[in-house]
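Summary for the steering committee. The consortium agreed at its last meeting that each partner would contribute one worked example illustrating the joint modelling workflow. Our contribution is presented below. We chose a case with several input lines so that the handling of multiple components could be demonstrated. No manual editing was applied between input and output; the record is shown as generated.
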Amino acid sequence: MHLSRLALSLGQSATLKLNELANNLKAEGKPVVHLGGGEPEEKIPAGAFEEGRKMLDAGFVRYTPTSGTAALKKEIAAYTEQYYGVKPGPRNIVVASGAKQAIYNFLVSVIDPGDQIVFPAPYWVSYPEMVKLAYGTPVVARPKAGELLVTAEDIESCITTNTKAILLNSPNNPSGQVYPEAFIREMVEICEYRNIYLLMDDIYNQLVFDGLKAPSAYNFSKRPLDESVIVSINGVSKTFSMTGFRIGWSVANAAITQAMVKVQAQISSCPSALSQAAAAGALRAGGDFVATLRAGLEKKRDVMVAELSKLKKVKLHKPQGTFYSFADFSAYEPDSTKLSALLLEKCMVVTVPGIEFGLEGHLRLSYCGSEKDIIEGVTRIRKVLD
Ligand SMILES: Cc1ncc(COP(=O)(O)O)c(C=O)c1O
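What follows is the complete predicted structure of the assembly.
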């Protein structure tokens, strides 16, 4: 049967595929250690549970407005004001079925066929495919050898008259690195000067360690929100350990927000009412939950770094946030797909090949699981490689 050229051209999500593989192996009773995951292991916040249960008790779970409920938008506005110093109105917010859909809404709203979206490597696995889904062309800026962060010049050299947006994810999946203030300032200046969008995928922006903060793009713009080129994406998946609820959102000027609402209306009507109620509950009660999650992840980051440093030939930039480490294993095997397959075969440890994030020679190892798994997983890898 016929399949579209677009469908045929799309790659599978490497991380979702590996999750499935790890779960299948576990179900078969194999002693697999999953260092490829992308979700915290904590239970959801009590506030999320209570609000979700209230709605189920009432027995009414209906469509909501396409751009989200007033109750959740109110919490998102308060959250944005607290962490970004910018207060969006309801016209600036679209609640979506995950940050992923919020990004897709944006891409479909700005891309004409062939337009370019520029983003740095290493990048989240989905960016290139999502840009392609919107009939755009992904353009990747690459860091210098041995580095995980690009410079403003690296980005600028990729921009053409067809560029519609720069897309940044900081702290970054997979590297765990936070882009410095000077870089973010330059990105805002470039985008404002050229009148192109700056899409900030801030899904991990509360999960930053060592007392650091991820610089907010809004700090470097004097434009009011309705004239802003900045589109910020956030959600409850990572920060509130609510991946399965599928709630994310965008904050942006009213004009692009309207376009994104139209896109979403024709694709999913609205995000789940039940999940929106739970997300509002999580945000309302939020701060302590996030602080505890962050402290736990920082401790696990330290365990991961200590374990990886025992490998003789691994090079690692210490992650500053997220729950990922992105280590250079090229001295053992330059082909990351081969290395990841070898580790699964020889010691049943799941890792994600760096090539999936646009940077060969690396492996992404997650530390969102248990400390025991981190130690066991990296010890097994060391026994195979050293
Ligand atoms: C960088 C980045 N952006 C967006 C997402 C999607 O988040 P959500 O679960 O809210 O769709 C992820 C999930 O892994 C991610 O790593």
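The CA atoms of residues 44 and 241 lie 6 Å apart. The chain is about 40% helix and 15% strand.
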